From TrEMBL:
Residues 1-34 have a biased composition (Basic and acidic residues). Pfam families: MDMPI_N, zf-HC2. Residues 1-76 are annotated as: Disordered. Residues 88-117 form the Putative zinc-finger domain. One of its GO terms (molecular function) is metal ion binding. Residues 169-315 form the Mycothiol-dependent maleylpyruvate isomerase metal-binding domain. It comes from the Bacteria. Keywords: Transcription, Transcription regulation. This is Putative Actinobacterial protein. InterPro entries: Anti_sigma_zinc_sf (IPR041916), DinB/YfiT-like (IPR034660), MDMPI_metal-binding (IPR024344), Znf_put (IPR027383).
C-alpha cells in the first residue's frame, strides 16, 4: 500500500483493470514521454531502467572489427568550374594565389582553351615584370652613376683624378661590406692565396687580418705622398708588401679586431684627398714596392685591384656575394696587368723559370718583335699585344705567334694567384711555349 510517506517500486504496469477503465476529461493526463522529470511532475516515483545484457555474456560470436585500411573512402568529388569562373581565376593563378584544386582546374582548362592560355601567358609575363628577382645587393655601378649625375649638375672644385677613381670606389665598396660585421665575422678565417715560383702559396688569417694587410701595404703609397706610415715605429726587414704585413701582424699584442677598420678607412680617405689636392701632375711619382716600383697612377690602380680581390676573399669567408668592379675600372686593372707582363716574362727568364724560346731574338727598343695576342672577353675586355722577347720591344700583329682568349674576371683572378695557369685560358692558338710563359707570368704578378 502506498501512502504519502511510503514508496514502493513497481514496473509501471497499471494492470488490466486500470487499462480498461474509461477516462473522463478530468482523468486526461499529459501525453509527454515518460522520464524522471515527467514522473516527478506527475507525482509518481521515477522508473529505474533495468541493466542491459552485454553481448559478451550472451555467448554469441562478436562482430569482426574493421581494419583501418579496409574502409575505402570514395575519392573527393572535384567541383566542376564553368568557363567564366576559370577565366576570372587567371589573375589569381598568375600570382600563385589559387588553392590547389583551383590551380589544377585552371591548368587543365588552359590545355583546352587557347584564348585563356594566351591571357594566362600575358598575365605571367606581367607578374614577372612586377616581381623581378633582384639581388638585395646594390649595383656596383650605382655609386658611379650617382656621382656622375651629381657632378654633371655641380662640378667639384677639386675633382678626383681618373686613375684614383677605381681605388676610391673599391675601398668604399669594401667598407660597405664591413659595416654590419659582428665579432664572429671579423674573426672568420680567410686564406690569402698567391703564386710563388710556379707553386700555389697561401697564408691563413682572419677578416681583420686582411684589413690590416691592406692598411700596411697601402702605407707604401701613403709614405710616397708624405703621409704618416701606418706601421709607425715598427720596422720591417724589407720594404715589400709581405714584410710590412708580417711586421704589422707581429707587432700586434693581440690578433687584429674590428678596431683596424677605422685607421684603414681614414688612410684610404687621406690618399684620395691628397692626390686630388695635389693634382694630376703627381701621377708619375714613383712608389717603391721593394723589388720594383710603380708610378703613382699605376700604384693606385694596383691598390684598387688588391682591394677588390681581398674583398672577394672576405665575402667568400662570410658566405656573402660580391660583384666585380664596373667595366670601366675593370678595364683599367686588366690594362695594368697586361702592361706588366713583359717585365714579368723577363724576370722569369732571368730566374730560370721560363726557358728562352728557340726563336727568341732581341730587338731594338721600340721595334716590333714576336708577340702574343691577349684577348680579354666580357665587360672591361679588349685586346693587347704582349711582346715576348724583350720588355722594350713593341707588340706587333705582323709578328704574332700565339693567341690566348680569357674572360676578364678570370684573367684578374689569374693575376691574383687564385686560378692555376693551366686552367685559365678559354682558347689557345699558336706557340704553346709562348702561351705557357705568358700565363705563368700573369700568375707571377700575384703576391700576398
Amino acid at each position: 500500500m502506498n501512502g504519502p510517506d511510503r514508496f514502493e517500486a513497481h514496473d509501471g504496469d497499471d494492470g488490466p483493470e486500470e487499462k480498461d477503465k474509461p477516462r473522463n476529461e478530468g482523468d486526461i493526463q499529459d501525453e509527454r514521454p515518460e522520464g524522471p522529470q515527467n514522473e516527478r511532475a506527475a507525482g509518481r516515483p521515477p522508473r529505474i531502467p533495468l541493466p542491459r545484457a552485454s553481448v559478451e555474456d550472451s555467448g554469441l560470436p562478436l562482430p569482426a572489427l574493421e581494419e583501418p585500411g579496409d574502409a575505402t573512402e570514395p575519392p573527393p568529388v572535384r567541383p566542376v568550374l564553368e568557363h567564366p569562373v576559370l577565366k576570372a581565376l587567371l589573375g589569381a593563378w598568375a600570382l600563385a594565389a589559387c588553392s590547389a584544386e583551383e590551380a589544377t582546374a585552371v591548368e587543365e582548362h588552359l590545355g583546352e582553351c587557347g584564348a585563356c592560355a594566351d591571357e594566362a601567358r600575358r598575365l605571367r609575363e606581367a607578374v614577372g615584370l612586377l616581381q623581378r628577382p633582384d639581388s638585395l645587393d646594390l649595383d656596383p655601378g650605382l655609386r658611379t652613376r650617382v656621382l656622375e649625375s651629381c657632378l654633371e649638375r655641380r662640378p667639384p672644385r677639386i675633382p678626383v683624378p681618373d686613375w684614383a677613381a677605381a681605388y676610391d670606389t673599391e675601398t668604399a665598396r669594401l667598407d660597405a661590406l664591413l659595416q654590419d660585421f659582428g665579432d664572429a665575422e671579423w674573426h672568420a678565417p680567410v686564406r690569402l692565396r698567391w703564386f710563388r715560383s710556379d707553386e700555389a702559396t697561401s697564408r691563413r688569417t682572419t677578416v681583420a687580418g686582411v684589413i690590416a694587410h691592406l692598411l700596411s701595404v697601402d702605407g707604401l703609397v701613403a709614405v710616397a705622398l708624405g703621409l704618416d706610415d701606418p706601421l709607425g715605429d715598427v720596422t720591417s726587414r724589407q720594404p715589400t708588401p709581405a714584410s710590412r704585413t708580417e711586421a704589422y701582424w707581429s707587432a700586434s699584442h693581440f690578433p687584429p679586431t674590428r678596431a683596424v677598420r677605422a685607421p684603414w678607412r681614414e688612410q684610404s680617405h687621406n690618399l684620395v684627398r691628397t692626390v686630388s689636392f695635389t693634382g694630376s701632375g703627381v701621377g708619375g711619382l714613383p712608389v717603391p714596392y721593394g723589388d720594383f716600383e710603380l708610378p703613382l697612377h699605376d700604384a693606385m690602380l694596383d691598390r684598387a685591384f688588391e682591394c677588390w680581390v681581398h674583398a672577394e676573399d672576405i665575402a667568400n669567408a662570410v658566405d656573402y656575394p660580391y660583384d666585380p668592379p664596373t667595366p670601366r675600372h675593370l678595364h683599367r686593372m686588366i690594362d695594368l696587368a697586361a702592361r706588366m707582363l713583359p717585365n714579368a716574362l723577363a724576370d722569369r727568364r732571368r730566374s730560370g723559370l721560363a726557358a728562352p724560346a728557340h726563336h727568341r731574338h732581341l730587338v731594338t727598343a721600340g721595334e716590333p718583335g714576336r708577340s702574343l695576342r691577349l684577348e680579354i672577353e666580357g665587360s672591361g675586355g679588349g685586346e693587347w699585344l704582349i711582346p715576348l722577347d724583350s720588355p722594350a720591344a713593341k707588340g706587333s700583329a705582323e709578328h704574332e705567334v700565339a693567341h690566348v682568349a680569357l674572360d676578364g674576371v678570370e684573367f684578374c683572378r689569374l693575376a691574383a694567384g687564385h686560378v692555376p695557369p693551366q686552367e685559365a685560358a678559354a682558347g689557345q692558338v699558336g706557340d704553346r711555349e709562348a702561351i705557357r710563359d705568358v700565363l705563368f707570368a700573369a700568375a707571377s704578378l700575384s703576391r700576398m
